[in-house]
Write the structure tokens for this entry.
Amino acid sequence: MDSIFDVPFALGMMRLPDYPALAEPSALADWISRQVEAGFTLFDHADIYGAGECETRFGEALKAAPALKANLQVITKADIVTAQADRSPFSVKHYDTTRAYLMQQAEQSLSRLNLERIDVFLIHRPDPLMPAEETARALEDLVAQGKVGQVGVSNFLPEQWRWLQANLNQKLVCNQVQLSLTVTDMLVSGQLEAHLHDGLKLLAWSPLAGGQWPEALSQRLAQLAEEKGVAREAIALAWLKAIPGMPLPVVGTCNPERLAACAQVTDVQLNRPEWYALWEAARGHRVP
Ligand SMILES: NC(=O)c1ccc[n+]([C@@H]2O[C@H](COP(=O)([O-])OP(=O)(O)OC[C@H]3O[C@@H](n4cnc5c(N)ncnc54)[C@H](OP(=O)(O)O)[C@@H]3O)[C@@H](O)[C@H]2O)c1
């Protein structure tokens, strides 16, 4: 069976409310349909994006065009309780990995998304208070009930996912972390190798650094883009894909022109000096 991660990049839905042209369910359904036809079939959500609004809009689009459901996959995440959502007297942002909370959030995501199954359900952030056995049973039960296909984590360090995995009779399939030319700590700390060793697919959030590239990097991207006849975005994504294990970028744009620029990543191969020249430009200094 093909992996659902076998796509050029996943489409992040966090910024959906920034695109007024996609506000109507039929417009969003058309947009989703175009992405699926182009081979971009994996959509990344979280319960907190737009305080539930992003999942709700996506679900309304799927209601308008239910045939799409068979051809796309959805990731969603839970455990972050925002300060606004916290009903305690403290109104404190926190994480909740208890069984009751995770089961409730998965149910609510399914209902908002208008789906029968979440393809990959992630624990959004590591929770120091995680009751590992209880969290693991909740994830297993969601899979056993058919509400979730696979499980994974996000923003976890190796020992954090290993502790959850040690309690879990279900393989954690991925870890979604911040990774781009401008955020590269994990490439020099051994974390990359931990993903490879443990067989977790690495998903890279904010892969274009939100377009906030330092000037030297911007120039280097432009130079290589011109040489290779592609857009700068394609070079930035190709840089990620050259890393062992081929981290899967989760791009945040819904803008058709920018998505077309990103799609050129499939035409780009970077050699070793090109890869290091980009990293040097992003770091502002040479590798030691
Ligand atoms: N797991 C987590 O903790 C976590 C955290 C944050 C995000 N995420 C996921 O990751 C996804 C992507 O995050 P992201 O949106 O920060 O990623 P991104 O792809 O790095 O950034 C997209 C944003 O950058 C802008 N942009 C990109 N290239 C640009 C350029 N060359 N010039 C100017 N602006 C440019 C886009 O604007 P345009 O609209 O003009 O294209 C868009 O607003 C989210 O949707 C979410 O699914 C996960």
Remarks:
- Residues 12-15, 44, 154-155, 176, 205-211, 232-233, 250-253, 255, 258 surround NAP (CB under 6 Å).
- The radius of gyration is 19 Å.
